Amino acid sequence: MTDTIAAIATAPGQGAIAIVKISGKDCLKILQALTHRPHFAPRKAILVDCFEPSGDLLDQALALYFQAPHSYTGEDVAEIQCHGGVLVARLILEACLKAGARLATSGEFSKRAFFNGRMDLSQIQALQQLIESQNASMAKAMAKQLKGGLKDFVHSVRTALLELIATAEVLIDYAEEDLPENLPEMMCAKMRPTLEKLQHTLEVSKAKQAQLEGYTLSIVGKPNVGKSSLLNALLLQERAIVSPLAGTTRDTIEEVIYLNGSCVRLVDTAGIREGADVIESLGIARSKARMQESQIILALFDLSHALDDQDMHILDLLAKQQDKIILVVLNKSDCVKKLDTPALLEKLPFIKAPPLVLSAKGSPCLPLIQEALAPFMQTDLPDVILPALSQQEALEATIAHLQEATKPLARLELELFAYHIKDALESLARLTSPYNTEEMLGVMFSKFCLGK
Ligand SMILES: Nc1nc2c(ncn2[C@@H]2O[C@H](COP(=O)(O)OP(=O)(O)O)[C@@H](O)[C@H]2O)c(=O)[nH]1
Ligand SMILES: [Mg+2]
Fold first, then answer.
1. Angle 206-207-209 from CA coordinates, rounded to 5°
2. Cα(321) to centroid of ligand 1, in Å?
3. 220 CA to middle of ligand 2, Å?
4. Which of 218, 220, 222, 224 to mutate to test the pocket of ligand 1 (most atoms within 8 A of CB)?
């Protein structure tokens, strides 16, 4: 970490501004070479001209200088906010490299922040999840953890476990006959709130996993019920081809919309039916696979037709997807009704939500779907949530060690009890402090984008 690193921190593309970041001891020197300006007051936005080493002017930009240790990485840091687009930031970065910086690797700024004690592992992870978050509540929860919410949680559990060890160690010095009779119960009772807290956090974290990743919603039904029409209505654009010919949609069509505070990937699928040709059959297989991967299914039926074998086949498929959020949508409400709705619903006793009656062709569908799904997409999140698998594993290990600790208690083996609690403490520490191997840190930071 002795060299100075630089990278473009913003996404490539036609944005209005782009940011080049520099960190390391030569930061000021590079800034001076780039701008021909001798002095930079820390934490002040300064309008600068940026030059190539040849002397050619590259851009007019805003430069910000942060003096170590008061910076993101804990080192000298500079940010150059230049004009966006694909080229300007690249040229400025190249000028920085020519002036002595080295191109940063993915996540290297955050890695330096970590090694310089600016952030612990829980905060680094929260930061990554904040960037990845597809859901407003998850993003808010991660922002709290970035500020240290998870660190505080770990600290409170740690304090409780240390107290347990302290109690055990005092009692170890007692002769066996002097130990309180109810010792196992007493210690278990002392441990219980912590154990319950950890178990609850683990449960919630697993259950809310999908919220970090956003939802996938697939629109399924037999051909011609109006799936593509509904997709178009939800996207407010003619994205999919709509036609009265059965089998028009042969591939899955996917677009992301923002619904009830979440990014939702909408999937329009090929109508599911028997006896389709080879290409359509491939599309149907894909539809079924996407349906299985979805968290939400809109099951479409056509009000203008009586229930037939193809609908029955859809009903069979739905019966195998009972763990999902399924909404029955009765389409073509503008037509003469031939569908026996009560008979249909009778076959779907596992669906809790009332069916939604609409016309994909005629009426605005987005508010209706949004409202119908709102109760199932509720996003109350606790302050502490651990979306990363490695975090959940650390929590699981902590819980397992605590459970293991109760066994020697029954035999009044306090040393062994304390030993297991120490193991629990070690597992818990994986949430906030360095992993013991460089390799694991490497894996973690490599997931970061360049410039973070
Ligand atoms: N009357 C009426 N026709 C509809 C409605 N929704 C779709 N259609 C028509 O039904 C046919 C099939 O629609 P499409 O969206 O391609 O169905 P898909 O095969 O399920 O994707 C087209 O002719 C649509 O115009 C609706 O709400 N009312
Ligand atoms: Mg279609």
1. 65
2. 25
3. 10
4. 224
Residue 48 β-bridge partners: 61
249 lines ligand 1 (CB under 6 A): yes
Question: What was the pLDDT predicted at 448?
Answer: 65
Identify which of 50-64, 123-137, 363-377, 383-397 has the greatest average pLDDT. Answer: 50-64
Q: Which atom of ligand 1 is nearest to the CA of 221?
A: 20
The pLDDT tens digits of the residues spanning 207-240 come to 887 677 789 999 999 999 999 999 999 998 888 8
| CA of residue 253 to ligand 2 center, whole Å | 9
What are the tokens at 253?
A: 């069509």
Instruction: Please give the distance of CA 264 from its chain centroid, rounded to a whole number.
Output: 13
The whole-number average pLDDT for the span 90-105 is 95
Cα 337 to its chain centre, rounded Å, is 43
DSSP 314-340: HHHHHHTTTTSEEEEEEE-TTSPP---
Q: Give yes or no for a cis peptide into 69 (omega within 30° of 0).
A: yes
Q: Which helix (H) or strand (E) holds 431?
A: none
Is 311 a residue whose pLDDT tops 60?
yes
Query: Nearest ligand to the C-alpha of residue 246?
Result: 1
Between 376 and 7, residue with greater pLDDT: 7
For the Cβ of 229 lying below 6 angstroms from any atom of ligand 1, the answer is yes
Which one-letter amino acid corresponds to residue 392?
Q
* Residue 440: band (very low, low, confident or very high) from pLDDT cuts 50, 70, 90: low
Mean pLDDT of the chain: 89
Q: Which residues pair with residue 50 across a beta bridge?
A: 59
Q: Is 271 annotated as a binding residue?
A: yes
Kindly compute the dihedral angle of the four CA atoms of residues 240, 244, 247, 249, in this order, to the nearest 10 degrees: 0
C-alpha 229 – ligand 2 centre gap (Å): 7
Domains of the chain: 5-118 (3.30.1360.120), 123-208+385-432 (1.20.120.430), 213-377 (3.40.50.300)
Which of 365-371's residues contact partners 24+ apart within 8 Å by CB, and which partners? 365/230, 365/233, 365/234, 366/233, 366/234, 366/236, 369/234, 369/259, 369/298, 369/327, 369/329, 370/259, 370/260
Residue with tokens 């290297």: 108
DSSP state of 272: P
* Ligand 1 near 242 CB (within 6 A): yes
Q: What's the confidence (pLDDT) of residue 438? A: 62
